[in-house]
Amino acid sequence: MQTMTSPLFSLDDLRGQRVLVLGLARSGVAAARMLADAGARVTVYDRRSAADLADAVASLEGRDLSLALGAPPDAVDELLGAADLVVTSPSISPRFPTTEPWLRAALQRAVAAGTPLLSEVDLFLRLTRARVLAVTGTKGKTTTTALIGAALQAAGVPHAVGGNIGRPLIEQVHELGEQDWAVVELSELQLPTISRGADVAVYTNIGSDHLDRHGTVEAYRAVKRRLAELSIERGVIVLNDDDPGCRELGVLLSGDVRRYGHDGNGLDLRVESDMLVLDGEPLLAVAEVPLQGRHMLSDVMAAALGASLAGAGRAAIADGIRTFRGVPHRMELVAERDGVRWVNDSQATIPMAAAASIRAYAPARIVLIAGGRGKGLDYSEVADAAAAHARAAILIGETASELEGLMAGRVAVHRVSGMADAVRLAGQLAEAGDVVLLSPAAASFDMFTDYAARGDAFRQAVTDLEASR
After folding, report:
1. Phi and psi dihedrals of 242, rounded to 5?
2. What pLDDT, on a 0 to 100 scale, did the predictor assign at position 213?
3. Dihedral sign computed on CA atoms, order 151, 152, 153, 155
4. What's 443's DSSP letter?
5. E-assigned strands of 205-255?
6. Rounded average pLDDT over 291-307
7. Can you tell me the mean pLDDT for 76-98?
8. Are 327 and 146 in contact (CB under 8 A)?
């Protein structure tokens, strides 16, 4: 495997450059701090006001930069025209219909004029000297990325974990050297703007998601393929052989491709006689994996194969897996009372993920809390899983009517107005041995700022329910 260690441009190239940072969320704050420290002339735009962004502004820690918070469209257009470089939040793109029309048009004019437009993660990839292990997929990215970090930590392999989780990697670009690994979680928001591939590119699965942004399943999958297309010439691609989308991608690739899966001979990592087998040798027993469900075991296999390609030994990988306790909001056990388990799976924002979580707890009966903002996806799979395994389905949010139409007559359906009511009703319906599962199968933005806020609301409602007894 050839390692990409040379930066695509250097930090010195940023000195004196006029850089416009769009968006003052976590990645925008990190980019603005790093750019200012590198000597760039930084201006930050966000449509929100300074009062709404007081915490973000404070986190800039008095650096010498300009703020254009709440600026009108014509002022932003002028800033774009004057910039030598534009660094964007992942959600801001001239390609995405979810970006405000006036801003999308302004960005298109800037690109046509030759202004470089980079995301925070692409800026990191251009600057870093570290080796890159990138993780993408429709679901399972965060768990897999965190597991790889745990295995590399157990092995003593120098690394940093970032992307959608952890400390933003752009702020660590000075710290990572040629012998370090940057473990990067990449979403479909970030992939369209990356300009280099990875030394190891790990895929968890390729399904359907974010059709509100990409329009069609094929357009979404084309975005997902980008990482492999940029990586295959010099890197290794890791694919899930159980997943149809990954198998389709594998047919298109000629290069170093490794595969993992539950079934089949010849795989680099597989399940055999209730053991995980890596490169023909036992790694650990399936019973030792602390995460529940076939889909979570797939994430474990992806992480194990990825970590091994980054130099972790099998004993360290096994230790990292055994001691891993999951990530917040992904099949997270938040309470167990009177024989009922309360599970926060708020990150299950698509039907495929929610259905897998429902099936993971069989033969226990499920009291399902689901619903949110739709993404133009088919909800039949989650309705079928609920019909097979749920005692009841409690529906909230904008997709409640659609879900009720698919579930009515197959499982007891209840409609409520919010999370607190859903949790109270679940407490009345659940019996000993049941699992109350928040697995929405939809986005959170109809009722919450993000999936984490939704999961936090569930956790708080469970705590309040116990306190009221």
Report:
1. -85, -10
2. 63
3. positive
4. B
5. 236-240
6. 96
7. 89
8. yes
Mean pLDDT, residues 36-63: 96
State whether the Cα torsion 19-20-22-24 is positive or negative. Answer: positive
User: pLDDT band at 6, cuts 50/70/90?
Assistant: very low
CB 347 within 8 A of CB 455: yes
pLDDT, one tens digit per residue, over 177-196 is 999 999 999 987 788 888 89
The encoded tokens of residue 412 equal 């007891």
Whole-angstrom distance, CA of residue 374 vs CA of residue 443: 6
- List, in order, residues 6 or more apart from 37 with CB less than 8 Å away: 63
Specify the pLDDT at position 212. 60
CB 350 within 8 A of CB 140: no
How many angstroms separate the most distant Cα atoms in the chain?
66
Q: How far is CA 247 from CA 133, 137, 170, 207, in A?
A: 20, 13, 33, 12
CA atoms within 13 A of residue 240's CA, in its CB half-sphere: 29
3-state DSSP call for residue 273? Answer: coil
Neighbours of 59 (CB within 10 A): 14
Residue that has been written with the tokens 């980079």 in this structure: 118
Report the predicted TM-score, pTM, of the whole model to 2 decimal places: 0.88
For residue 136, which phi and psi values (nearest 5 degrees)?
-140, 175
At a CB cut-off of 8 Å and minimum separation 6, what does 5 contact? 129, 130, 131, 178
- What does the alpha-carbon distance between residue 320 and residue 318 come to, in Å, rounded to a whole number? 5
Q: Which residues are 236's β-sheet partners?
A: 200, 256
Closest CA to 104 of 174, 22, 191, 185: 22
